[in-house]
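// run 5 | inverse folding | seed 20
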């Protein structure tokens, strides 16, 4: 499906520019300052999940981050953002990638624990990336989605010192104890890992 593409707001462009100039360690702690929020990934749009849907943390100080977990939403991009903003849903991921153009939303800070893996140990040690689409509809896995997601994953791996390999970049279906199948048989891992390593 195609949806209207909104240009980035001037406010977001200004925030992104300011963020790029400030060393990460010098950014204010958002938990201390309520509404101070900006994406960890400069190209992502900040679309915060409801605070009832994730756990505030101070990673990597309190939990080492050593995995990236790849998901497919089984819902549209907009519906996924709505679900994450609904305090009754008890689910979130750090990022959502839009199918049509690879646009990135960040919904949970990388320092915080998102609820995406269905497994507390894996939630505490991972960054979760949702991709708009359905496991049985490979047309959603566009070039733009693969390319932007791979850039994001490469940047996450660099930020957290995570090896860019399949032992550390895993599918939801590889989380111990899960009954989820995403990203499913049409997700092209060979292509994705090549893009991550050459991003
Ligand atoms: Zn999943």
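// decoded
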């Amino acid at each position: 499906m195609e949806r209207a593409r909104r240009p980035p707001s001037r406010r977001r462009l200004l925030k992104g520019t300011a963020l790029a100039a400030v060393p990460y360690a010098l950014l204010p702690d958002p938990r201390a300052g309520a509404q101070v929020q900006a994406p960890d990934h400069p190209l992502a749009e900040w679309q915060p999940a409801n605070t009832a849907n994730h756990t505030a943390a101070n990673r990597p100080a309190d939990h080492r981050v050593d995995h990236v977990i790849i998901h497919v939403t089984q819902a549209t991009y907009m519906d996924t953002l709505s679900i994450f903003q609904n305090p009754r849903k008890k689910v979130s991921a750090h990022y959502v990638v839009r199918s049509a153009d690879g646009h990135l939303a960040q919904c949970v800070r990388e320092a915080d624990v998102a609820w995406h893996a269905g497994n507390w140990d894996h939630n505490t040690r991972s960054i979760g990336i949702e991709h708009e689409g359905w496991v049985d509809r490979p047309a959603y896995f566009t070039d733009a989605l693969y390319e932007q997601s791979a850039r994001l994953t490469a940047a996450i791996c660099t930020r957290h010192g995570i090896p860019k390999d399949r032992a550390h970049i895993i599918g939801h279906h590889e989380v111990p104890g899960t009954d989820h199948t995403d990203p499913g048989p049409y997700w092209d891992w060979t292509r994705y890992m090549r893009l991550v390593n050459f991003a």
